[in-house]
What we know:
By secondary structure, the protein is an alpha+beta fold. It contains 22 helices and 11 strands.
Amino acid sequence: xxxxxxxxxxxxxxxxxxxxxxxxxxxxxxxxxxxxxxxxxxxxxxxxxxxxxxxxxxxxxxxxxxxxxxxxxxxxxxxxxxxxxxxxxxxxxxxxxxxxxxxxxxxxxxxxxxxxxxxxxxxxxxxxxxxxxxxxxxxxxxxxxxxxxxxxxxxxxxxxxxxxxxxxxxxxxxxxxxxxxxxxxxxxxxxxxxxxxxxxxxxxxxxxxxxxxxxxxxxxxxxxxxxxxxxxxxxxxxxxxxxxxxxxxxxxxxxxxxxxxxxxxxxxxxxxxxxxxxxxxxxxxxxxxxxxxxxxxxxxxxxxxxxxxxxxxxxxxxxxxxxxxxxxxxxxxxxxxxxxxxxxxxxxxxxxxxxxxxxxxxxxxxxxxxxxxxxxxxxxxxxxxxxxxxxxxxxxxxxxxxxxxxxxxxxxxxxx
Length: 416
């Protein structure tokens, strides 16, 4: 194995906040005092080598166990907020999240299956189970070797040459989600996928159907959260991978334009919207197939169904010609995200009416409540809701300005 003695402690200082840097130093000191070793690994180290601030802090523990992790969290004044069957832990220290994984060996019983842990291991063996050379390096946090990089697969060289390269030929057979990650990383980092790796993508891409829809969904959402989502999807389309995930997705100019201009803010809401945009041109049968294949939850399914219904509605109804109450009647039963999705595909006049609905009409309440209508002489029953709906629609159209006018209208209905 090639252990690179590049020391980047200075770059750690530059790419990490002072709080995180000090926290990592404490982690390394504690583990060394307890006869264990701790390493900064994966995409976190990759980003630091690229002189970027990492989004996540990923650590690997060698010669340690859950008791050591628990003691470490207490020493740091934090707590373990999550741990899994794969010997992974999520620590929260103040407002900082640190992910720690015990070094381990894994085997895959079949293509696309989740790995089974066979034993704990050295850092070199742990790095072998990872996806790409650029993510298969480790930086020591122990005081005696702080900043030294272990690079068994020449990941630094691939970073310098801007290459995405798998570690071994069975990588995509073991875990086909790595195919989707290879495309995502290549676009995000502006790296090339090396020829051998690209050949293996084409060889094993059909194995994507062997993994669960839940895992495909997670990878697809990660792609849609990227700023360069349209480029990633177009690359997947070029490699005929998008058809494996869902046939008939049409990445036309309009969809790519929407994706290019989309500003991602809220994870769950924007996930709904981006999935709806991606599947906008599918018919309802393909939407249902897509939703079932990816194990989408009921909120996703409702959003996609509503999106399709609104699309059909807007093809048959001129929303920009309707009065306010009619706009309300057409849209009130649909999810907000589904309306937003259709807004992206609408002309300016329709967009104005959609904005009017979302910003004003949607939250308008009837001028009288049920008790007030009963006080006018109405008997409890369906008539109450009928009057409230009528008054609401009159208010939306500007025919009712205040409660007195609403009471007059309600009384007229009751006296008929």
